[in-house]
Every structure is written in structure tokens, then in C-alpha cells.
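During the reporting period, our protein records have gained a C-alpha cell line. One record among many is quoted in full directly below:
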Amino acid sequence: MSLEVRPEYLDTDTAEFFATVPQFNTTGATWGELLGLVGYVVEDYVIDSAGELNAAPTLRAVEEQLATNHEMSPFLRGRMWELLAVAAWAVEHGRQIEWC
């Protein structure tokens, strides 16, 4: 299953506005693994439904993982950088992080 990870959409947002927002697609398994790395408990490390996260603590956790986890695979590190961009944008604009 493919999931889109992005800052939350509001009813007042336009398609043009969100064309510039950082976002990425990933599998439910990879998303579950990323969430586990930043401290969220994920059963079986697989996500198969929509949800949202508080952006500020997620941003801090991602920054910590990138700075200290030297055993992370290059693939996951790349996805973590993408999550960092989404979380930073969400914090700056007062949004949550959502996936669907």
C-alpha cells in the first residue's frame, strides 16, 4: 500500500498552495519503520490507514535520529530527510503531519 505523507490539508487551502508543499510517497511498511525510529509505537511496523502526528515533537525526534543514528540504512536516512522537510514546514505553518 502506498501512503502520501504531507502537512495536513485545510479546507481553505488551494491546489496551487499545496503544489509547493514538501510531501512524499512511501509504503506502509517503510512508514511504520520511520515512525518506530522517531518513537511512535507501531504494531508490526506496518501502517495501512490514514492518520496524523503532532509536527513539533516529530521534528525534534527526526533531527535527533539524523544526528545520532549512524546505523540507519541509506534508504531510511533519505526518507527521514523527506520527513524532516514535511515536519519543518508543518511546524512553521502551524499544521500537523498527516498520511493517507
